[in-house]
Amino acid sequence: MTTVLQGSGSNPALCLPASGWRRRLRQAALVWCAGGLVTLAGAQSGAALGGGAPDRPIGPPQRSVAEWLVRLQQASRVPSYMGTFVVSSSSGAMSSARIWHVCEGDVQIERVEALTGVPRSTFRRNDSVMTFLPEARVVKLDRSESSGIFPNLLNLGQGFPTSDFYAARELGQGRVAGFDADIVLLSPNDEWRFGYRIWSEKQTGLVIKTQTLDRAGKVLEQAAFSELQLGAPVHGEKLRRMMGDTDGYQVVKAERARTTPDAEGWQLKTAIPGFKPENCYRRSDSKAAPLVQWIFSDGLATVSLFMEPFDRQRHPSEGSSSIGATHTLTRRLHDRAGDWWVAAVGEVPLVTLQAFLQALQRRP
What we know:
By secondary structure, this protein is mainly beta.
């Protein structure tokens, strides 16, 4: 799940949301919301989150991890659907949103309307994202590098050796929002990542429910449609008109630029197994010092590192926090040129974030 930086970046304890969930609603960290609805929330236990999937694989021959990921990725091109989905976490929080999705050839258009929290409407046309904040009368423009708003789970970039770090096991069939679904368990082969239980609509392959699991099988976070209509009358032209209706709004463009870790003076002295560097961004505005975000992914899970000059007035004590499956770890880094405030944020075990921060250093 791709985490993108939003806000001033001064306090990793602040919330986001992919998604906006944007994937993703992700109130656990700093994120430039590349558009979407990110949500963290939850129920009290795996049972409360609906984790009762059968343990024995049944049905057709087992698919490999690669075959499952291809199926789930291709399902994002379902012609149209609309529905209500809920994101919940084991902490007891819960958020919901309404989504409209249409695919016209190579063009995907989505609208996500937050039903909880601050009023927010997010539109995405391929990688162009507009987030309307009616109370502030502001529209935020950004770019999204994820393949869709729901689910925010599948990052599925090219070249990730995902099958080296996860094993797939089919758990049978179930029903979600009135639709029959195949259930697959993607289990991690090491301690650096969480597992995922995924419900895929039987005919289209559309992901209609996901659960993020810790090593003991406890459900940390769940996202699921509570109501869904496939083949819904969603009109792309109408969504495009809504995206263009900015009268009375202040239009604000995200202030971030692509950069490289080398150019910013950062490196990892040791790699974290399975996690490949993806992108690096630099943000600078009048309210905060320049902030760098370095993104890593293993094809499913994503980790973001945030680095900025240390400011005693803005930065809290070092520590860690978690909301659902998202952990945040912060610390102060000493360097000959000065002090830095660094944060690691991701939907991974805390030990993974610790490994990233232990490996992060300034270039000689």
